[in-house]
Amino acid sequence: MAVSASKEVTYNWEGADKKGKRVKGEMKASGEAFVKATLRRQGINVTKISKQSRFKSKGKVTEKDVTLFTRQLATMMKAGVPLLQAFDIVGKGHSNPALAKMLGEIKSDVETGSSLSQAFRKFPLHFDSLFCNLVGAGEQAGILDALLDRLATYMEKTLAIKSKIKSALLYPVSIIVVAFIITAVIMIFVVPAFKELFTNFGADLPTPTLVVIAISDFFVNYWFAIFGSIAGGIWFFFYTWKRSEKMQATMDRLLLKAPIFGHLVKIATIARFARTLSTMFAAGVPLVEALDSVAGAAGNHVYYEATKKIQTEINTGISLTVAMQNSEVFPNMVLQMVSIGEESGSLDAMLSKVADFYEEEVDDAVEGLSSLMEPIIMVILGVLIGGLVIAMYLPIFKMGAVV
Fold first, then answer.
1. Residue 330's pLDDT band (cuts 50, 70, 90)
2. Three-class HEC string of the chain
3. What is the pTM of this model?
């Protein structure tokens, strides 16, 4: 009991193998003696052991890293490379030390008798239930290489959709931030210089100029409160959004109803729903169990609730088509394709075609959105910056006309 309760820490070790080659690595253990004994059994003569600092930077494993690892693992297993050797190749060949360390721990778990899906489940932040369920189904059916290939394709397509949506949102957001910074600089530094110049005119200033000067005075006097409020508001929003399920649900509903981005988010969510369900169903996962993973991968609270409702209705004997229709969040085309898939026994193929269709529609929507946003943003910037410049030069034009 005392041994099992002892706290494990990470040790860095160096040594030489049976051939005299210098090797090094990391190991979680309850003490140095355990590390030495374990490595000795592996034929390694330990020369140095040190405790790893708890504050040492461990890097970060990204979704792109996991997707690339899945594709590499699927490719090597299809080529007949043994599983443990494949982990060695991927871990040593990857530039991210955090991923290499995680793969080393997964490999150690598999070597000690754990199944691959059980080893993945120890890292839920990087391998969700869908990933682990598919790997488990592949292990049981003896088709791990095929399911890893299907899983890699799914992750690549999902990552591509997320990347396209982020790129579509990044452009207008970055322009808004730059416009605000430029406006603040003009209000705090440029307008006061004009104000000092205008005080010597001895004439009444035009209304637009007075309005801009009043706004500038407010910026100069309360710039710290303005910037502090904006920064605090953004921090509070994301802090609450990450921790409040109610706020996430509200934001997801509002996002779907947004006039410009709502349609893009909706079709991307439907594409992810169809792709996930197709991948799970083709792997032989029962429909009711598959919907658990589909709900988690939906990425939108509205579709999460709809998927859970669909799952409940299917448990009562209702068909998938009727259950999806009752949720009232899917277009008629999706319902018709699902209905044909159920009747013909090719549900996974029909869902895959739905996913392909909506993924192409996401591509078109992103391109259309980019071409639409550019002129709108240019007009907004032109009106904002041009309006400020004109307002400040109106008194000069007026004085020139008098002269």
1. very high
2. CHHHHCCCEEEEEEEECCCCCEEEEEEEECCHHHHHHHHHHCCCEEEEEEECCCCCCCCCCCHHHHHHHHHHHHHHHHCCCCHHHHHHHHHHHCCCHHHHHHHHHHHHHHHCCCCHHHHHHCCCCCCCHHHHHHHHHHHHHCCHHHHHHHHHHHHHHHHHHHHHHHHHHHHHHHHHHHHHHHHHHHHHHHHHHHHHHHCCCCCCCCHHHHHHHHHHHHHHHHHHHHHHHHHHHHHHHHHHHHHCHHHHHHHHHHHHCCCCCHHHHHHHHHHHHHHHHHHHHHCCCCHHHHHHHHHHHCCCHHHHHHHHHHHHHHHCCCCHHHHHHHHCCCCHHHHHHHHHHHHHCCHHHHHHHHHHHHHHHHHHHHHHHHHHHHHHHHHHHHHHHHHHHHHHHHHHHHHHHHC
3. 0.67
